[in-house]
Amino acid sequence: MTAKQPAVKRYIVRLSADERERLNALIQKGKAPARQALKARILLKADASEAGAAWSDSQIAEALDTSTDTIARTRQQLVEGGIDAALIRKQSPNSARKRILDGAAEAKLIALACSPPPKGRKRWTLTLRESAVVERNIVDRASDNTIGRTLKKTFSSRTSRSNGSSRRMPTPPS
User: Fold this and answer.
1) Are 141 and 134 in contact (CB under 8 A)?
2) pTM of this prediction?
3) Quick one: which of 72, 76, 163, 174 is 20 to 30 A from 147 by CA?
């Protein structure tokens, strides 16, 4: 049985003085997103330049409570794409879906939600609103989830608050 040998690092981090200063400033301000601050700390610990700490991936993982895969990925992103690529999360074009309800359609949906419910109903349900927006050609199709999220976002699902008044909890009788 042979002992497992540590892998040779393919991506060696060497930061310039400006890059180190930028990463230190990012961490010290405390305003950066947590993922960005973590990656800045990883890069500072992994820095193999003369001013760097040159920690191993396992040391960094233990100190920062993260995985060695995250550290390896961060090293690779820095070497291949630069400091911005390592710090800033890349948006996937596949994850960006087109909005079903644009501003005009949202306004029509809100007007529908504020209107009286259909005959024979006491109130609008999400399913009724869903079918109504399709019948009135506001959108081609929409799920009740989409309708609910839109109304929640605009606070239009609470018709009693639309006039500016707030609901009060009834006080128990004494």
Assistant:
1) yes
2) 0.53
3) 163
